Target: Outer membrane protein assembly factor BamD
Amino acid sequence: MVGRGWALAAMLVLSACGNGSLGSGLGSLGFGTREPPIETRTAQEIYLGAEKLYDEGDPQKAGQQFSEVERLYPYSEWSKRAMLMSAFAYHEASKYADSRAAAERYLEFYPADVDAPYAQFLIALSYYDQIVDIGRDQSNAFDALQEMRDIIERYPDSEYAKSAQMKFELALDHLAGKEMEIGRYYLSRGFYTAAINRFRVVVEDYQTTTQTPEALYRLVEAYLSLGLVHEAQTAAAILGYNFQGTDWYQSAYRLLTGRGVEPGNVGDSWLNQTYRQVVQGKWR
Model:
């Protein structure tokens, strides 16, 4: 009897395999269960499923599923929330273009919403977090500067303005560092005019960055190498006025006194105009 019982059970299993009922039978026991097609789920169900994916450590899939809420329920309140969450999740997954696209859509649909500053901040971060070392292309730094500026100007009272200001200054310093790297390269190879042009960019366009003291010192070096003593004196005078306590000024002072001259606003060059503006406060 036992043997015949097992044989009958085996026949039932084979029969189930033939008509497809075994899968449903095992499914009822908890094996091989699958979620229903996403199109059959409510906006809330899709949204909560995306949150679960994020919590489980898969921000990219979470971003994709948040986007499904927007696709399937474009005018719902869940879609509004999901749009911003997809931008956030994609950013966490380093999918910066996708993050930026979602945040831009949010601003297009809800420009005056309370979360608009955050959407703008995510756009800025999508560029800022791609800033690489100063030896490579700096287009992301330029884009980050513009987007951070937009946050500072458009949402000055938001909680993101302070962070944007800090990142703006860091991106600016990064760009100045790029100019310094190129300028030092030219200087070390005796291309003094090319080097001066790079250091001038730092002094005129990035004067609030940490690169400015060295730029002024390198100008002293380059101008002395060309025999343009007046220009070197003026660069050192600006350096001494703003950064007298730095090693850069001490080094510049030694270079000049070694030639029998001292820092001062002499001659007639672009540096004299900078001296009048920075030291004398004369803008005309």
User: Anything to note?
Assistant: The first helix runs from residue 2 to 19. The two ends are 112 Å apart (CA to CA). Residues 1-32 have pLDDT under 50 and may be disordered.
